[in-house]
């Protein structure tokens, strides 16, 4: 028998002073926290930092439009890269107070949620799933990923290696993205034009945005003088280049082509460091430059003062970036096009004093033109004054570009951001809103002509009014991308171009094949300035180009050939016979919900704002396609269909362009269901 001796058990060492049982302590505990921090940083980088900086990096116009400084842009990048990670890290650190098990569980939950968020983004790109089904699949994927992370070491190790990603994403944004030119511009030297024999007249340029030529035309192919009297007035005293096309459907490519005379070659920022040779440098040695740009910064500091209207600040950048993050992270496709999210500030919002007396034009019924017009336009009008030195007055105005918010009178109205622009019912609504904003733009053209005549500049100046591109309102091809170009090139490519020579009195039409690379050579020719670089365009004062086809660039360096002449305007839908009629009591016929009913309870026309867009949802008893009549104060203002269901529900939206429907104070809004026999049934509204 073997005698065995059992060693007595060793008592555990007492915890260190100040330590709490169950809480990780010492170097190993902090190493664990560091590992968790790196894993969270890697996932946040994939879920937030990379997609956000990718979109913003490809959108330098976002920073240019908001007049962001270098410091504000860098601060925004730092917030995107650091704040979400720090917030989750603090949440995890707080969970340590509940003990080691709670800390581990919280980290696992965070990993699972971040993996689910990543799965939403990946799933939206590689699968047809949307909405709740995609969300369910993403949550299952997140749970599986969290379980794998908790069970095996490999996933955690891979995440810690990937934690270098956020720094790489920031570096790519700062040094390799198109927006890098805005943040870290490299030089502003551009070639100056050479003065040629002849006079140097004042040059006034107004570049509108997203304006198809066909929107201005009547059935006879001429400018519709009834709807757009001031465009017709402009055409009556200038040369209308009727067969004129832009070169791209995206302003950051289209406008540089117009101002450099070169077709788009590379996807770079619309910035002077990327386009050093342009209209502003060509005329800048001889002309005083007064430029109001919107989503470009082509005029270098050596030629132009900083923009007159104030910057919008870091708060605006953060708020707009937050909206972008919501679109990126959502399990549904966004109806909001980031390229259509620009909204010009009014003069009042920008804090500008009224530069002009209130015009006598009775069509500005609010007597508040300076409050309604965009701030850049107010600044532009204020600068239209004669000068001893040749002067270039330049304005790129985002009108009638979406978002559509102006009635023909100049009154503003609110609209939800998620209304679709394409699909049955929606594309028709989009076109009506576009045309209403174009009628308001016509008022601004009239103000420009009035100011030029009042100051004596009209006869002396070279006046150029055009647009950078159009937009399609064909169902299934709404917009201005390649699909719209192929389906409706006449609406996207063809734009109005009016050039009034100094001293010109009579209007004429020139049907040469104008492409927008011809704009710079034409202006330089009239200004008697020689352009010291090669251009792809030719002056309209020279012989027309021999070829009849057009070049259009959905992507720089990849031209699409367009053929065909001046497009015919699409027929306008005839108004429903009920529009404008009065309606009394009708039998009940269902229910509906109208958003923003409170706006009808306290209408104040003196503010220049009206609830002119009525939208909401209908109950299941109202079939798809049913026509609804929308009445305000007993008079029908619009008849619209109930569209098929979408993520917003079974919706309708009616646009009321007649200001006379509204009155000060309380206004009554009613909905009526139109039956197959034309009978009206009243819908109860909530």
From TrEMBL:
GO MF: arylsulfatase activity
Basic and acidic residues compositional bias, start-end: 334-343, 546-557
Family (UniProt): Belongs to the sulfatase family.
PANTHER family registered for this protein in UniProt: ARYLSULFATASE (PTHR42693:SF33), ARYLSULFATASE FAMILY MEMBER (PTHR42693)
Biased segments, Low complexity type: 16-27
InterPro entries on file: Alkaline_phosphatase_core_sf (IPR017850), Sulfatase (IPR050738), Sulfatase_N (IPR000917)
Pfam families found in the cross-reference section: Sulfatase
Keyword presence, Transcription: no
Keywords, ordered alphabetically: Membrane, Transmembrane, Transmembrane helix
Transmembrane regions listed in the UniProt entry: 73-93, 105-123, 129-148, 157-176
Originating species: Micromonospora carbonacea
Region Disordered, annotated ranges: 1-28, 332-354, 539-573
Name of the protein in question: Sulfatase
Domain spans labelled Sulfatase N-terminal: 377-528
Highest taxon listed in the record's lineage: Bacteria
Keyword check for Membrane: yes
């Amino acid at each position: 028998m073997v005698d065995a001796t059992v060693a007595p058990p060793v008592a555990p060492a007492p915890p260190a002073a100040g330590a709490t049982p169950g809480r990780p302590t010492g170097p190993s505990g902090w190493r664990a926290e560091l590992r968790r921090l790196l894993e969270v940083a890697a996932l946040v980088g994939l879920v937030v930092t990379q997609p956000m900086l990718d979109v913003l990096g490809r959108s330098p116009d976002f920073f240019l439009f908001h007049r962001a400084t270098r410091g504000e842009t860098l601060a925004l990048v730092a917030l995107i890269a650091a704040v979400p990670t720090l917030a989750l890290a603090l949440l995890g650190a707080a969970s340590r107070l509940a003990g080691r098990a709670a800390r581990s569980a919280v980290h696992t939950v965070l990993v699972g949620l971040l993996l689910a968020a990543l799965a939403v983004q990946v799933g939206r790109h590689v699968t047809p799933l949307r909405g709740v089904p995609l969300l369910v699949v993403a949550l299952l994927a997140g749970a599986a990923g969290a379980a794998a992370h908790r069970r095996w070491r490999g996933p955690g190790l891979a995440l810690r290696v990937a934690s270098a990603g956020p720094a790489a994403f920031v570096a790519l944004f700062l040094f390799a993205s198109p927006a890098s030119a805005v943040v870290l511009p490299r030089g502003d030297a551009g070639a100056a034009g050479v003065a040629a024999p002849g006079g140097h007249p004042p040059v006034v340029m107004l570049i509108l945005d997203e304006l198809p030529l066909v929107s201005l035309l009547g059935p006879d192919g001429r400018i519709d003088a009834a709807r757009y009297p001031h465009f017709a007035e402009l055409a009556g005293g200038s040369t209308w280049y009727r067969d004129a096309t832009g070169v791209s459907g995206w302003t950051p490519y289209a406008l540089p082509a117009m101002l450099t005379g070169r077709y788009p070659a590379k996807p770079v920022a619309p910035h002077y460091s990327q386009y050093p040779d342009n209209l502003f440098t060509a005329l800048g040695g001889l002309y005083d430059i007064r430029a109001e740009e919107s989503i470009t910064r082509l005029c270098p500091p050596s030629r132009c003062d900083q923009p007159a209207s104030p910057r919008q600040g870091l708060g605006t950048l953060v708020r707009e970036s937050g909206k972008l993050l919501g679109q990126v992270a959502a399990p549904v496709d966004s109806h909001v096009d980031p390229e259509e999210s620009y909204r010009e500030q009014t003069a009042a919002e920008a804090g500008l004093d009224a530069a002009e007396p209130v015009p006598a034009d009775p069509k500005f019924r609010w007597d508040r033109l300076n409050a309604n017009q965009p701030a850049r336009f107010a600044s532009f009008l204020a600068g239209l004054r004669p000068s001893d030195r040749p002067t270039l007055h330049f304005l790129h105005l985002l009108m009638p570009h979406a978002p559509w918010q102006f009635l023909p009178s100049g009154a503003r109205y609110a609209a939800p951001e998620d209304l679709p622009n394409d699909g049955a019912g929606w594309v028709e609504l989009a076109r009506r809103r576009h045309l209403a904003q174009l009628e308001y733009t016509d008022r601004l053209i009239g103000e420009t002509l009035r100011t030029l005549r009042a100051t004596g500049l009209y006869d002396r100046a070279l006046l150029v009014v055009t647009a950078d591109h159009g937009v399609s309102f064909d169902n299934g091809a709404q917009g201005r991308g390649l699909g719209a170009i192929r389906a409706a090139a006449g609406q996207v490519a063809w734009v109005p171009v009016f050039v009034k020579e100094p001293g010109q009195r009579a209007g004429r039409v020139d049907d040469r094949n104008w492409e927008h690379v011809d704009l710079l050579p034409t202006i330089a020719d009239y200004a008697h300035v020689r352009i010291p670089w090669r251009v792809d365009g030719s002056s309209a004062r020279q012989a027309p180009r021999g070829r009849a086809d057009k070049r259009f660039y959905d992507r720089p360096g990849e031209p699409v050939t367009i053929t065909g002449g001046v497009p015919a305007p699409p027929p306008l839908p005839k108004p429903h016979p009920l529009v404008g009629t009065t309606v009394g009591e009708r039998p009940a016929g269902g229910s509906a919900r109208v958003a923003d009913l409170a706006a009808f309870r306290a209408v104040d026309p003196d503010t220049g704002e009206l609830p002119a867009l009525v939208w909401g949802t209908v109950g299941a008893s109202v079939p798809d396609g049913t026509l609804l009549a929308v009445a305000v104060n007993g008079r029908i203002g619009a008849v619209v269909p109930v569209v098929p269901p979408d993520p917003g529900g079974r919706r309708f939206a009616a646009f009321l362009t007649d200001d006379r429907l509204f009155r000060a104070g309380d206004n009554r809004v009613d909905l009526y269901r139109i039956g197959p026999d034309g009978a009206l049934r009243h819908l109860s509204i909530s």
